[in-house]
Amino acid sequence: MFAYFLTRLASLALILVVMSVLIFLVTQAMPGDVASMIAGQFASKEVVDAIAVKLGLDQPLIVQYGRWAAGILQGDLGRSLVLEQPIGPILMEALARSLVLAVVALVVVAVVGIALGVLAAVRRGKLTDQMVSGISYLGIAVPDFFWAIVLVLIFGSYLKLLPTGGYTPISEGFLPWAAHLVLPVVTLVLMLLARIARLTRSSMIDVLQTNYVKFARAKGMPESVVILRHALKNALLPTITVLAIDFGLILGGVVVIETIFSYPGMGRLLLFAIQRHDLPLIQATILIVSAAYCLANLTADLLYAFVNPKIRHGMRAS
Amino acid sequence: MMMRRLVARAVLSAILLSGTAMSVQAAGTLKVSVDSNLNTLDPAKMKGGQEYVAAYLIFNGLTIIGHDMTVKPDLAERWEHSDDLKTWTFHLRKGVKFHNGRDLEAEDVVATIARIQDKATGSTARVNFEIVESMKALDTATVQFQLKSPYAGFAELFGERQARIVPRDAVDTLATKPVGTGPFEFVSFAPGDRVVLKRNANYFEPGLPKLDEVVVRILPESAAQVAALTTGELDLVWNLPLEAIEKVKADTKLKIDSVPTSTWDGVIMNNTVKPFDDPRVRKAVAMALDKQTITQIALFGNGTPTHSPIPPSHPFFNKDLKIAKGDPAGAKKLLAEAGYPNGFEVTLHTPAGRATRERLGLAVRELLKPAGITVNVQRVPFDVFLKDIEGKAGFYIDGFFSRPTIDTSVYPWYHSRGSWNTALWSYSNPKMDTLLDGARQAKSEDEAKSLYTQVQALAVEDSPGVIPYVINHINGLNAKVKGFQSHPMMFLDLRNVSVD
Amino acid sequence: MTDATSIRPAPRRLRMSALPGSLIVGIVLLAPLVVAAVAGSWLAPYPYDEMNILSRLQPPGPDFWFGTDEFGRDVFSRTLVGTGSSLLMGVAATALSLLAGVPLGLVAGYKGGRVGEAIMRAMDVLMSFPPILLGILVLAVTPPAQWKAIAAIGIVYVPQVVRLTRAITLELMQEEFITAAHLRGESATYILFKEILPNIWPPLAVEASLRVVFAILLGASLSFIGMGAQPPSSDWGLMISEARPFVEQAPWIALCPGFALAIAVIGINLLGDGLRALLDPRNMGAH
């Protein structure tokens, strides 16, 4: 297990290096160069060149990459060209806000999704089961941004119950902070609920058919104890693995969600950086989100390996 | 189990209710939204309206453009110029302090303008100050400028958005920690989220500002802005989107405050391209367009019909001139005289994604039909528009933001050597040139007014293009916000504002 | 990793009950959309970009069945014509990922060794990006256009196709008929294209039907954030995005393309379920 962990960690490091090169090269090819963006519409060529020199944009690519990568290894993500301040603090603040969204959404998905899945499995074939799968279908049938608009319309415009955009720091009180999270979280949850509910349902059905559960029932244990204590524990393992993957998906999915809800996280920061051609900010944002995604995937793999004895005993995953 | 369910329900309803509970906030705090992120808080480098909002709260200029669009003293309490309009001397107000506690000195003014003139700064206001030959601080409270050519509007240039006076020893940190002399002091800036400002206790205007704190929230979605205004989470929506106006009007707790700006959209006719090289054709187009209807269609009524970029709210506006009411029969007659008895067919280009200009294009198509002109509207992506249409095509819709002075609002478009004239419609009339040059050197308000009145009459007579309206700047606000007045330059002036 | 789990030999359980129902309902839902995609411009009561400023923001009624937008364009006609753009994005991107992914997967599975390893590691890197971010990374490079969005989505899904193709190829290599072909002295090209490829199609078709859904949704998302189809296109994602400021005054502008998108996604999902039951002997499990 430990050897497997080390191998995975090493390959992760390698992947991150390749990713950083890829990100750097692709973003360098961006049109509408940064210097002329900063200089403005009516700037002469000499002004643009002066700014380019000041920013080091006239250096060869390899030098620029070297400087960038060396900085990152020392924890320096560079300076935003447009915002004229170090990227690190801005990015970390935005990442923290996005993580709040992602973690809350993940917890809700886990609790609600597993509950629905168990319910559907226990009432297999009955109306409850069909309703659960119907609701699940609804969640995935419509893209997240459409759900977001519908939620804004219902809870913001018609019912006036919830704020439909923005963010309030928790320092201004728990309730205002939480209220701003509700709609984005619900949107993310709707997107992911179906998968978790269906997965829990199918693994629960499998477990309920094992001798282990049959034995427990035969011993005369109450059905609720059988399901919650014995069956669920075993059925949850694959679900937990998928939840870890979903966490990565949420991190990617926040780009769209944050736009609609004017939520100042990573996603909006990235789109802002792209619109303003802020190269260092684009590079840093994509790198950090991708690294977080990789970590989530690694966690998922390790969890899977942990529950899967074949891998635990030293075999490779693929 | 039961207990847990109860707790869950309590938390949920608390969360649901908090949307309304949030209106409880510290007294004297104003929460205002802008629709786009601020790139920088360094005034010299600012380019967008949302940034100017911060600029006018934190900084001052030597002069300020007042609500009536005329120039007023700000950091300079008075100024004078030589008879040839080439030497300008500004006397600074005494006892003004920067937020860092240091006194404002004439050297700060010199450093500010020198920084704008420096190409490496990349300020869009640099061209304005190209006219400055030299400048120097005569003493700590007096600064003198020597101009390359006479310019009557020089004092107005200091009311320009980028020309905010900054402390010469703190220019490197302006983008993130701005220090100014303005009514509010910088507290924090979270990009994409908010700018927080607090009252400047040492502000030079006695008793002002009234607010303790201003929070500028960045909320790009118009639906979210209006929802937040309705629930009381926001007190003011700066530059309210047109589509949200009805909603705000319908709510008795909210109100609309608007003012005509000199931001305009226009129907551009290239005076060197057939058939628009014939002044009768241009006049016919202008006659056929009912400006009131156009304002209704393009701006949902939230604009003011005008003759030229000079807005009807300005003292120089020519009130004797009639706004075109739409006369298709007269237009037809003129077209026949010009050799088009059966009208003609023409393509009109509009920039995609600029909603007011797109709607203006469609309105032109409908209104020119009865005059016998068939218009094919073609929408082009904005980057293509800038590259291939603007200044090149014969017939298109364009638009421009308000400028700080009447001279900078009119001269570039109507003088035969004006930068936008040569780029747009290539209009040339020596009489117009004489009027505009004369106005630049006018010795008095009255003289300038008389000259600009004639400029507007000539602009309508020659119709190099049609400027149907100036757009209103609209703010949505909670009724408990007192003392707010929308500014024609779209500045957010909060000095006299208080919240009940 | 997910694919690795799905390839595990699972008990052979053919779910006959799923076969007729989902397939038929899927086809019934999709048929009108396909017709709209092909003949939308002819069927639409108005040209999709015809603006009628005097009747803007009209609610649904006899003249405009699903109302009009802020320029007075007919929402029904726009949705109808937008079908082509929206479905094309998913289908073309999926086709692209198959076109690039199947050969790579075949080579990686058949050749193995250093070449195979190199291909798989390259795929690992691509899969390490969150899908929409990979799309954005590709698209941020140049001014947006729909074909670029299609290419970007295609690239996003190449690794999945490669992994699946390789896994099936590896499994097939153990089968007797391949060993027999080797013994007969057939060329690698022959074995790859005549023996292996035909056996790969069924699971790939199932995979593709799932991919199309993701690709359509990803395409709509990219259009929504302004990186896919460009105005005045009536791509559904773009329509919904442009309808945002008017959602309260005129919800029909957003709802109409939204429902169309829902029908497409549900239809293709059902079709995929049906196909899976019909074509794939393995039980792919719920994932």
Largest sheet of chain A: none
Helix segment tally of chain B: 15
Shape of chain B: globular
Query: How far do the termini of chain A sit from each other?
Result: 15 Å
Q: Which CATH top level class of the largest domain in chain A fits?
A: Mainly Alpha
The largest inter-chain interface, given as chain pair and residues per side, is: A-C, 56 and 43 residues
Please report the total strand number of chain B as a whole number: 19
Average pLDDT of chain B works out at: 88
- Count of individual helical segments of chain A: 13
> The CATH topology of the largest domain in chain A, please?
MetI-like fold
Features:
heterotrimer, A: 318 residues, mainly alpha, MetI-like fold, 2 domains, globular, C: 287 residues, 10 helices, 71% helix, 0% strand, disordered N terminus, disordered C terminus
Concise description?
The complex is a heterotrimer of chains A (318), B (500) and C (287). With 500 residues, chain B is an alpha+beta fold.
Strand and helix map with partners:
The complex is a heterotrimer of chains A (318), B (500) and C (287).
Chain A: H1 2-28, H2 34-39, H3 45-55, H4 61-73, H5 87-122, H6 127-141, H7 144-158, H8 174-208, H9 211-218, H10 223-260, H11 266-275, H12 279-307, H13 309-312
Helix pairs in contact in A: 1-12, 5-6, 5-8, 5-10, 6-8, 7-8, 8-10, 9-10, 10-11, 10-12, 11-12
Chain B: H1 2-21, E1 29-34, H2 49-58, E2 63-65, E3 71-73, E4 76-81, E5 87-92, H3 106-117, E6 132-139, E7 142-147, H4 154-157, E8 184-190, E9 194-199, E10 213-218, H5 222-231, E11 236-237, H6 245-250, E12 254-269, H7 279-288, H8 291-299, E13 303-305, H9 328-337, E14 344-351, H10 355-368, E15 373-380, H11 382-389, E16 395-400, H12 406-414, H13 419-424, H14 430-440, H15 445-462, E17 465-478, E18 481-482, E19 498-499
Parallel strand pairs in B: 1-10, 1-11, 14-15
Antiparallel strand pairs in B: 2-3, 4-5, 5-7, 6-7, 8-9, 9-10, 11-17, 12-16, 12-17, 13-17, 18-19
Chain C: H1 2-7, H2 18-43, H3 75-111, H4 113-127, H5 131-139, H6 146-173, H7 176-184, H8 188-224, H9 236-243, H10 252-279
